[in-house]
Amino acid sequence: MTSEPLTPDTVLSQERELVLPSLSNDDAVDLGLELLRLARERALPVLIEVRRGPQVLFRAALPGVVPDNDVWVAGKTRVVERYGHATLYHRLVEEESGVSFTERNGLDFADYRAHGGGFPLAVAGTGVVGVAVVSGLPQREDHALVVEALRAHLASRG
């Protein structure tokens, strides 16, 4: 996984870099399979989900995943869907400002989890149409896994 320093600007740069040409059902499954391949190679205890709009197009739970991971995936998904940015972006803004995401936005932590691992899936010329989420690792590692998989997914498409 990447060792680049993470700041809010770095995450926004990743979002601009990782724009997809399309997000068909097949594209979503391919991205999910890339995440799954990376997680299996490393024996990572993660829950993976790829959505387009409200529809789950890929979901996999590897050994070590617990029911709490479902809660985290749902909360991270809501943050990305509401704001259109990676959950780690919001977390890093929180760390820099000293004001929690919950305080800043008036949203209940039980429903909105601004912790790394949720990443917007943007399509060129359209904008954010979905979300890829990983839960099970420390938040920066969840985020890094999604970024790595998106880079590999884009590279495989030329």
As a percent range, the share of helical residues equals 40-55%
- Backbone shape: globular
Number of strands: 4
Estimate what percentage of residues fall within beta strands: 15-25%
Structural class: alpha+beta
Mean of all residue-level pLDDT scores = 96
Rg calculated over all Cα atoms: 14 Å
Main β-sheet, spatial strand arrangement: 2-1-4-3
CATH level-two architecture: 2-Layer Sandwich
CATH superfamily: Haem-degrading domain
Number of individual domains:
1
Any idea of the CATH topology? Beta-Lactamase
H and E order = HHEEHHHEEH
Largest sheet: 4 strands, antiparallel
> In CATH, what is the class?
Alpha Beta
3D architecture notes:
It holds the Pfam family HbpS-like. This is UPF0303 protein EV189_2217. With 158 residues, this protein is α+β, with helices and mostly antiparallel strands. It has a single domain (8-156), classed as Haem-degrading domain (Beta-Lactamase, 2-Layer Sandwich), CATH 3.30.450. 49% of the residues lie in helices and 18% in strands. The chain has 6 helices and 4 strands. It has helices spanning 8-17, 25-41, 67-83, 87-97, 101-105, 139-156, and strands at 47-52, 55-61, 118-123, 127-135. The radius of gyration is 14 Å and the shape is globular. The mean pLDDT is 96.
